[in-house]
Amino acid sequence: MKELDEKNKSKELKAQKEYEAAVELGKTMEELNVTIYSKVGDGGKLFGSITSKDVAEQIKKQHNIEVDKRKVTLEEPIRVLGSSFVDVKLHQKVTTRIRVDVKEKQ
Known about the structure:
By secondary structure, the chain is an alpha+beta fold. The chain is 39% helix and 36% strand. Strand 5 (82-91) and strand 6 form a beta hairpin.
């Protein structure tokens, strides 16, 4: 029983540390801006679209923060120029919002 209690305590401690790390990362990521350059057609519409995979890659490239593309939640892919906010789920209880700027590729 004592051994089981120690295992449970260590699991709880590990879960608490993961949660605290996610909260800290979330605070850092709230201040991030990610800029993505894309080819643009008539009327400011993009050729193709910006997906959660593109956002995750640019977070890694621009800020050196590893984010799984499945954790980046886009209701639908971004298809126009401008700024939008994207939610990133870092933990079961922690979700942060980052700003994504889509600009025309020169």
